[in-house]
Each structure stands twice: as structure tokens, then as C-alpha cells.
UniProtKB/TrEMBL annotation:
Keywords: ATP-binding, Kinase, Nucleotide-binding, Transferase. Belongs to the carbohydrate kinase PfkB family. Its EC number is 2.7.1.56. InterPro entries: Carboh/pur_kinase_PfkB_CS (IPR002173), PfkB_dom (IPR011611), Ribokinase-like (IPR029056), Tagatose/fructose_Pkinase (IPR017583). One of its GO terms (molecular function) is 1-phosphofructokinase activity. This is 1-phosphofructokinase. It comes from Rhodococcoides corynebacterioides. Residues 23-305 form the Carbohydrate kinase PfkB domain. Pfam families: PfkB.
């Protein structure tokens, strides 16, 4: 079973345009969709569509439309009662794949709700293979919360993945190795923030066929106790670094339509491959294949196995460091 925590869930409304977005103009949408969202919810949706069992833990009122939407999609959930309703996030998707997101902050949670969420995760984790802590945390929740959860989850056998940003990510890293998870999935900007690099430079280097700056940055986190770093680099591909090796994969050619859920799909693909016993190269290939498939789909649609072609993803096993040119 895959357990996901979405502490700040949402209903994701996507407006698709046939023309470029122009500030101050009036546009007519080509397509509008509304689906349950939040990063952990997205991971649970992708895992469920692949035929695996996933349970999404989230704070939610029993009358919130988010829960009925999850039920319609066949996604199992464990809702911790709260008085507020899920926030609404707006995505504007242009025909060339450009995506503009406007995310509400979400309602704050009472301390007893935060405690109940943590207790639910720790209880359900006893029966899980992976626990995924994804996305932002609600206003008012201490930034160290993910780190405390990871440290507590070290007492169970489940592997732990974390995909977050900003203060929660910084607080998590500040606690390494005690708060180090089995997998962390930063994008280039997040990896750069944690390691003092330049995110744009990491992506640019990978786009030119040199992933070693990203590998070196990810190695910093592995040396601090993280078991695996899956660094996603947008259209430049992705890098996987563990204590025993590193790999670089480039995405297949696609026509990008929306980046919504691409990172979450990559994380789900990695976990699905791990459950199937794949090695590092196989886990990275599945991650990139799922992320690319998500980017090729419209709106908030997430990939199913029929959308994914792992054979189209080339994976390169890397040396521990790049070759030094001979003078």
C-alpha cells in the first residue's frame, strides 16, 4: 500500500486557452475542468490508476466536494475532520504548454487537527510500503512538521518520500540526518536552494548533456543521509543519485500541453518501479516516462499506464565524476 499525506488539499480548476494569455484581456476558455488535487492526492491518483493500492490522508470536512470527487475516481482516502473547505487552485494552460498557476494559501488547521493527521499517518504507515509527504503545509503549521514526521516514521518499515518546497523543505534539510527520508524529489530550483547552486545553471548544463553539476549537488544531500535524490530538471530530464550510483535520463519528444501534476506523476512512477523491483536506472526511466506523459496531457489529467512508454526514455549510467580532459 502507498500512503500519501496532503496536508493542504485543493480542488484544482484548470482553464485551457487556444490562444496565448494576455494580461488585461478577455479570453474564452476552450476547456475547463475541476478535479481533486494537492500533490499527495495526485500521487495517489496515479498509483491507483496503475492498479496499486493507495490511500490519501488529508484534512477535510465530510461534506467537502473533494471527498466525493475522490470517491468518483476510485481513490481510497482517510479524512481527518476539519471545519474548513479545501482551497481552490486555478491553472491557466495555454496551447503551447505554458502554464500559469494561482494557488490559494488554504485554511489554517487547529493544533488538534495537526496532531490527528500525524497520528493517522503513523498508524496507517504500519501497513504501508511507501509513505509520501507531498506539497505545502497549511498556514500556521510549523515548518518543522515534515521533519518531525519523517523522524517518527523511521520507527516503521515503510520507505518515506518527501516532495515539498520553501520553508518546510529548508527545515527538513536542517535536520538531516535525523530527518533524512528514503527519497527526496527536488526540482532544479529546490535542489539549488538546498545546496547553494544556481537552479537555472543546473538545467542549462543538463540540457547541454552535462548532468554532473546536478549530480554533484544531489550528492551533497546523499552524503547528509538521504538515501536517494530524484532531481527533476523540466525538459532537460532528471537525475537520480544514491549512495551506490547515479543516472541521467532525458525525456522523449512530446508536445507539452500542461505541467500540472508532472512532478507528482514522476514521483508516482518512481515508486511504482520500486515496488516492481526495478534498479536505479529502471526507477528513473519510469519516473521520467510518467512525468513526460503528464506534461503531454491536457489540463489536470494524470497519466495511466496506457499513456506511458518507458522504452522511449534513454537512461545513462554515470561515472562518479566526469572525465577530466587530457592536456
Amino acid at each position: 500500500m502507498i500512503l500519501t499525506l496532503t496536508a493542504n488539499p485543493s480542488m484544482d480548476r484548470t482553464v485551457s486557452l487556444d490562444v496565448p494569455l494576455v494580461r488585461g484581456s478577455v479570453h474564452r476558455s476552450a476547456l475547463t475542468t475541476t478535479e481533486p488535487g494537492g500533490k499527495g492526492v495526485n500521487v495517489a491518483r496515479v498509483v491507483t490508476s496503475a492498479g496499486r493500492t493507495a490511500t490519501a490522508v488529508l484534512p477535510c470536512s465530510g461534506s467537502d466536494p473533494l471527498l466525493s470527487a475522490l470517491g468518483t475516481l476510485g481513490v481510497r482516502y482517510h479524512a481527518v475532520p476539519t471545519s474548513g473547505v479545501a482551497r481552490t487552485n486555478l491553472t491557466i494552460s495555454e496551447s503551447d504548454g505554458t502554464t500559469t498557476k494561482i494557488n490559494e494559501p488554504g485554511a489554517g488547521l487547529a493544533p488538534e487537527t495537526v496532531d490527528a493527521l500525524m497520528a493517522s499517518v503513523l498508524e496507517l504507515a504500519q501497513r504501508a510500503d511507501w509513505v509520501v509527504l507531498s506539497g505545502s503545509i497549511p498556514p500556521g503549521v510549523d515548518a518543522t512538521w515534515y521533519g518531525r514526521l519523517v523522524a517518527a516514521l523511521h520507527e516503521v518499515s515503510a520507505k518515506v518520500a518527501v516532495d515539498t518546497s520553501d520553508d518546510p523543505l529548508s527545515a527538513l534539510a536542517a535536520g538531516f540526518p535525523a530527518t533524512a527520508p528514503d527519497l527526496i524529489k527536488p526540482n532544479a530550483e529546490e535542489l539549488a536552494h538546498l545546496t547553494g547552486r544556481d537552479g537555472a545553471a543546473l538545467e542549462a548544463s543538463a540540457a547541454q548533456g552535462d548532468p554532473y553539476p546536478t549530480v554533484d549537488a544531489a550528492r551533497v544531500l546523499v552524503d547528509r543521509g538521504v538515501a536517494a535524490v530524484l532531481a527533476t530538471l523540466g525538459g532537460s530530464g532528471a537525475v537520480l543519485v544514491t549512495a551506490t550510483g547515479s543516472w541521467f535520463a532525458t525525456p522523449p519528444p512530446i508536445t507539452p500541453r500542461s505541467t500540472v501534476g508532472a512532478g507528482d506523476s514522476s514521483l508516482a512512477g518512481y515508486i511504482l518501479a520500486d515496488l516492481d523491483g526495478e534498479d536505479g536506472a529502471g526507477r528513473l526511466a519510469r519516473a521520467v516516462a510518467y512525468g513526460s506523459a503528464a506534461a503531454a496531457l491536457p489540463g489536470t489529467r494524470l497519466p495511466t499506464p496506457s499513456d506511458v512508454d518507458v522504452t522511449a526514455v534513454p537512461v545513462h549510467t554515470l561515472d562518479s565524476s566526469p572525465a577530466v580532459p587530457q592536456s
